[in-house]
Amino acid sequence: MLGKTLSHYKIVSQLGEGGMGVVYEAEDTNLGRHVALKFLTPAMATDENLLQRFQREARAASALNHPNICTIHGIEQFEDQHFIVMELLDGESLADRICTGALPIGSVLAFGIQIADALESAHSKGIVHRDLKPANIFVTSRGQAKILDFGLAKIDQHKVNAASNLPTAVLDGLTSPGVAMGTMSYMSPEQARGEVIDSRTDLFSFGTILYQMATGAMPFKGDTSAVVFDAILNRSPLPATQFNSSLPDEIDRIIAQALEKDRDLRYQTSTDLKTALKRLKRDLESGRHSVENGAIHVSRMPSSPTHEHSIAVLYFENLSGMKEDEYLRDGITEDITTELSKIRRLKTFSRAVVMPYRDKQVTAGRVGTELRASYVLTGSLRRAGNRLRINAQLVDAATDFPVWSERYDREMEDVFAVQDDIASRIAAALRITLSPQEQEALAAKPTENLHAYDLYLRGRNFARRVGRQDMQFALQMYENAVSLDPAFAVAHAAVANVCAQFYYYFERKQEWIDRVNAATKRAIATGRDEPEIRCAEAWLDFAQGRYEEAIAKCRSALVRDPDIDGGYNLLGRALFEAGRYQEVVDMMEDILAHAGENYNNTIPIHNALGAMGKTEALKNYTYREIALYEAQLKKTPEDARVRVLLAGNYAYQGRFDDAQREIDLAMVLRPDDTMILYNIACTLCEMDKPKEAMNTLKKAWDAGYRNPAWIRQDPDLEKLHGNAEFEQLFPPQQLAASDGSE
């Protein structure tokens, strides 16, 4: 080929050779630039499947425009020669870069963030690489990582950019279920088993690359294919820090989650993994560390006496088998976590962090490795009538050996004493001496009346669904709770909270404001300064358009209790309506980390990303939302709100049939609910049905959803801007003029 001219490309030199063919440097005589040409060998060019795979690579990569993906200029044919025209890169492959050993941690993080950013772009367009490995990543002389070779890419025809014109044959005809695709040592477990794969497969392969960059070694090794497959499917690699003591401990946690064999416990999107790497890079570049020649030198600080131990409280197992006891199981587990968080020398993990392990068979050692927890608290509960049996066990994550266990067989009225005793016994087992203030905090009970507490937990479970009937039921539960115990401050705050939301979502009537004020005064009159009271006051400010006051009160409450139910949802909403979209995005990980069961936290983030035009980030974020919503539906299939939220995300991904199914089910469950109607209008916009969307939005407005500021700013309704009816109902000036009241 050397010296030949094909069309207007003059072959200059051979650059390399791979499984699909040969790559040459060539001069584009028309444009006067040098490019790389990738040729199929003549033998391969006669194989229709291989030719389609070759075309698939070009079309997949050309659909992407990203600085960390090799640019494809075109795919051409000259006589019997098929070739791809690519940008010419100066540098070396990542495989060559790491063949001599581990890279400095600064380089690991820099390349890792760039690769994750490229995957974020590819995945948002429905393209899964499936053969990610160091040989397919090029490092330019300027230190820029670029992903190459999309020959095995899997393409989601619902998401890929229509401009790429990918034929159905390319989408469907190249692979079959049960066939493993990719390079063995970098395969995910689902790839190795020949299962259907998704974008999380690339994240496993990426985790393998991170491990290799950080250690110079492969995480899954073996002399035969069978041994490597067994390692991928059944064995965990040694921590990277055991190979390289200069590495920060956090890199082990990041790699461990990327290499999680259960893809539901793996990072769910490349955005998640990129965020973790960026956070570590930021932390390492703080004042405690120095950077020399790309290497970050970590000064390992002694453990703070404030957090000598860390503990993950897994959701207790509900042995009664009764679905109606789930709220009690969740409430008791979360309250035990709250009790333990009162101990200064214990670091407890938030509900959202441990949520993926709920109802899964996992060992304490595995949880400890993945979360970097010193100890794991596991347990079970069974309720029979008014009797409650609780088993609790504290396990040393390093040894998988129990350091304390206890069985409680008590009356339901003793549940607070049990929670107090568990926290005190754990402190004793860990040789932590409780201060008088800590002892007093542990002894404090939200209420002396167990029936009132039970009603409160039931109400909280329904309030999260934000439907009219659900909120009415929650309000009834809360009011019954305070009638049983007038000193139950948190329940009074919950009454105020629901009344404020009822005013905001359903009925702009003064009576709801009066009920908020009355309930708040009763909560304050108990003498308990609970953060839930500040949160209720913030809801009232927000409902009446006093966004700055709401933001300040929310932040005050969250400083005291970051896990306060619905606190981050309200803060995100207030920031969004105030037009402070970037602040919502900046605190995205904090919002999600403390979401727990409250899926409403996802909404302000979704809208802020949309309002800012962050299309690719939003596409990736929808995967996280869908995973959360689908998990919630498995637990509460009757939750109409989560169905319409799921429908909106399905529609955003082009899954219109799935979206319509969820819309229909939600309408059966709650046909006249204003919130359901509003979210259906948003979904219909995504499905490109503006007329139906406008009609549904009018129904929501007529039924009581009177929030012009949110409607005007909601990016899901942007397709209605300019519609005569929409502009008449929600003129632009109303956004600035509306104070949220009638």
In short, what is this structure?
This protein is of the alpha+beta class. The chain has a six-stranded antiparallel beta sheet.
Helix content: 40-55%
Distance between termini?
A: 77 Å
Q: And the CATH topology of the domain at 95-146 and 182-297?
A: Transferase(Phosphotransferase), domain 1
Query: What is the CATH-assigned architecture of the domain at 95-146 and 182-297?
Result: Orthogonal Bundle
CA-atom Rg in angstroms: 28 Å
- Main sheet summary: 6 strands, antiparallel
Mean pLDDT comes to: 81
Kindly provide the name of the CATH class of the domain at 95-146 and 182-297.
Mainly Alpha
| Broad shape | globular
The CATH superfamily title of the domain at 95-146 and 182-297: Transferase(Phosphotransferase) domain 1
Give the topology.
Elements: E1 5-6, E2 9-17, E3 21-28, E4 33-40, H1 42-45, H2 48-62, E5 72-78, E6 81-87, E7 91-93, H3 94-98, H4 105-124, E8 127-128, E9 137-140, E10 145-147, E11 154-155, H5 168-172, H6 189-192, H7 199-215, H8 225-234, H9 240-243, H10 249-258, H11 270-284, E12 290-292, E13 295-297, E14 309-313, E15 317-318, H12 326-341, E16 346-348, H13 351-354, H14 364-371, E17 375-384, E18 387-396, E19 401-411, H15 415-429, H16 436-443, H17 450-463, H18 468-484, H19 489-505, H20 510-525, H21 531-543, H22 547-560, H23 567-577, H24 581-586, H25 588-593, H26 602-611, H27 615-635, H28 640-652, H29 656-669, H30 674-686, H31 690-703, H32 708-713, H33 724-729, H34 732-737
Parallel strand pairs: 14-16, 14-17, 15-17
Antiparallel strand pairs: 1-2, 2-3, 3-4, 4-6, 5-6, 7-9, 8-11, 9-10, 12-13, 17-18, 18-19
Helix pairs in contact: 4-7, 4-11, 4-27, 7-10, 10-11, 12-15, 17-18, 18-19, 19-20, 19-21, 20-21, 21-22, 21-23, 22-23, 23-26, 26-27, 27-28, 28-29, 28-30, 29-30, 30-31
